[in-house]
Amino acid sequence: MNQRQTVAERGGAGRPGKNGDGAERHEEIHRSISDAIIEHRLRPGARLREDALAEVFGISRTGIRKILQRLALEQLVTLTPRRGASVTRPTADEAKDVFDARQMVECGLMPEVARRITEEDLRELRDMARRERQALKSGEQSTAIRLSADFHARLARISGNATLADFVERLCSRSSLILAVYGNPGHLGCESHDHDDLIGHLEAGNGERAQAFMGRHLKAIEASLSIVEEAAEAPDLHRIFSD
Amino acid sequence: MNQRQTVAERGGAGRPGKNGDGAERHEEIHRSISDAIIEHRLRPGARLREDALAEVFGISRTGIRKILQRLALEQLVTLTPRRGASVTRPTADEAKDVFDARQMVECGLMPEVARRITEEDLRELRDMARRERQALKSGEQSTAIRLSADFHARLARISGNATLADFVERLCSRSSLILAVYGNPGHLGCESHDHDDLIGHLEAGNGERAQAFMGRHLKAIEASLSIVEEAAEAPDLHRIFSD
DNA sequence: GGCCGGCGATATGTATACAATGATCGCGCA
DNA sequence: TGCGCGATCATTGTATACATATCGCCGGCC
Fold first, then answer.
1. pLDDT digits (tens, 9 = 90+) for B4-62
2. Which of A19, A107, A163, A173 to mutate to test the interface with B (most CBs of B within 10 A)?
3. CATH topology for A92-224?
4. Which residue from A51, A61, A132, B28 lies 20 to 30 Å from B183 (Cα-Cα)?
5. Does the beta-carbon distance from A171 to B161 stay under 8 Å?
6. How far apart are CA B177 and CA B144, in angstroms?
7. Closest by alpha carbon to B198, among B150, B149, B131, B126?
8. Model pLDDT, residue B5
9. Which of A66, A93, A108 lies closest to B104 in CB terms?
10. Parallel, antiparallel, or unpaired: how do β-strands B47-48 and B77-80 relate?
11. Which nucleotide is nearest to B64 (CA to C1')?
12. Domain spanning B92-223: which CATH class is it, in words?
């Protein structure tokens, strides 16, 4: 296949083969795909063919494979041997696990977050909440979903624990997938004012209240899902036709 | 390079190119390297050259790279662009984050574990604890370290939450690295009788006590570390020679 | 005598070619 | 006419070849 994209990109950089070039390009592509999945522009089950992606982004399959593997480890895509990659379709069990994990970690982090939060953080969080509300109001679901996930991830990072923050970030990404499969259309996960209320508790330095509120918030999201295990691959015919 | 190993392996399988073959082989190699790191047979900082690994395991660099990337995502190896892979040397900050995370998650899991644990689980855990004690006594540090990590991971899995169990498993692997860097020789992380005591609390169905005990257990491990940030790469010459 | 710059070696990053496998579609047969 | 079977095709898995950047060494220069 031709490589017009590659040439254009490299030509623009001035000197071909610059060091950070490749790595940053990969990072960029990873984020592109990741965002598309989180924003539900790629629905669960969508197939991701290596050739197609390679052509779109103007790199060879080698680089695409690397990125797909990373996405697979983040459980955003599923790699079926000899069958290729597709956007992960979370099971009901996984959905429960993810929300239980968020309940434990995000709530547990709130006291520390309340202790460490700065004015700068508060300003940024308020801005994110505002943009999210705005996106919701103007019907930009994709943007709202991503901003919501970003909000939770950003919050966790304030705790100062990078390991737990990374974990929360991945849980939020997966939650977005779960919403895509089990969410009711028109009823987004996070209520528009919830995040603002949470910011209020944190601003007041009330970690306990923030923790409790986060707990209710997550429970509310989980409760809004209609988790009905749609006939899986390999429906149990015996059970279905037993009577 | 020749491929005698590959031929031998494939030939032994009976039919060449069997489906699971490649994937399982990769899994096996991943575990080999992972174990070597966890068991401190590969010390932090050790370089992992692709050619050398490819030759040792009888596959091409392509497969090795895939495995190295996975290990990097699990934060067991560090991939420096253009410099290759090396066993991760955890910083003091990372060590603190990892143990704080374990404190939150492993302790938080105990009540559910106490609720769900079965006789079969108890038997298995006791066996692992026994083998660990035995390894400690006979001076097989490597084995003891791995068994200790396995014990904690196994415990978390009983909770039924695969997501959190995976997380704990990775935290334990990283803890092993941390022990390699900051641990005092001759003083292994987990006291030999701690795990047995923990099993006792779980057998009694006392989740709260198990939770508290796990908390003390982890704190004890963390306290046994001598975390002194050894002069990092790029010593701050200004600060050093300012007086 | 010490430092800077060039040069060769080594190892990684990338692309491509080839091989193998699973899926799809068409054909023949019952 | 429906089903089973076989060939072709599309797609992934693997290895290898080539380009490129970095590291260490050595010689010249200040």
1. 333 333 333 333 333 345 678 899 999 999 999 999 999 999 999 999 999 999 999 99
2. A163
3. Four Helix Bundle (Hemerythrin (Met), subunit A) (1.20.120)
4. B28
5. no
6. 14
7. B126
8. 36
9. A108
10. unpaired
11. D14
12. mainly alpha
